[in-house]
Protein 1
Amino acid sequence: MTDTTESEPTRIAFVCVQNAGRSQMAYTFAQQELEERDLEDEIELVTGGTQPAEHVHDEVVRAMHDVGIDISDRTPREVTFEEIQQSDYVITMGCSPEEVCPAGWAGENRDWDLDDPDGMSPAEVARIRDDIKRRVAELFDGIAGTS
């Protein structure tokens, strides 16, 4: 009989307070990285907020549309304590890790300290979007290098 046990996928959580801008962009770019790198079976993605907004910020939807990505159907969601506890990497977008999960977690936290795009000009939102895309690619480069 062959051993069919597989290791659990690496879980990455992209967390923000409202889950309406930065974390939505990061999650979307991470989904692209999964597909491009053929890592769907190795990495699981989570996104959420501690106080989710009603909808993704309009300026974020427009900025993503400008690069050919439609996130208009996305809805901010609340991230659960269990999701954070079960994550290998918790990427916060500029809010403190204590605000996201005061009890801590077993995984690694990285705070990207990004400006909130809510209410910003299209040029500023595009700058944040491009920075997030670069950071997500670097994150995947690092994870791929350690697996």
Protein 2
Amino acid sequence: MTTEPLLTTIEAAALLGTSPRTLEDWRLRGGGPVYRKVGRRLVRYSHADLERFTAEGARINTGGGKPG
């Protein structure tokens, strides 16, 4: 288990440059970054999962070509 602090929805949204509402929508519909439920209500994100999410979205052209 890592000792890195987990981010709140607001913190994760700021890091991704999106709104907390967008992250909430992604959780409902799928397609967003991996998240963790802490207890019954708290949602948290790890830096590593957010980095992985952004890396998976990397493209080299508008046709969807992925780098390397």
Protein 3
Amino acid sequence: MAMTGQERVRAAEEAVEQLGAGLMAVGVALPSLRVDPVSFADRGGLPLVDLGRCTIDTALRLVAVLHGVGAGAAR
């Protein structure tokens, strides 16, 4: 059964919450993380997650975390 518009929005909100919590757990905060309101206009698709803007420091911390995950996966 296809998801309703309300279910799609809630799924996107849950994804944003989980992503934000996961990033915070490794010391990275994306201050503009949100569900993109413009994507709600597409009634057939899923709303988009807007990762937003961040400082250079935050971007570099995110890169470091991603490199750490990649290094851990290679073991």
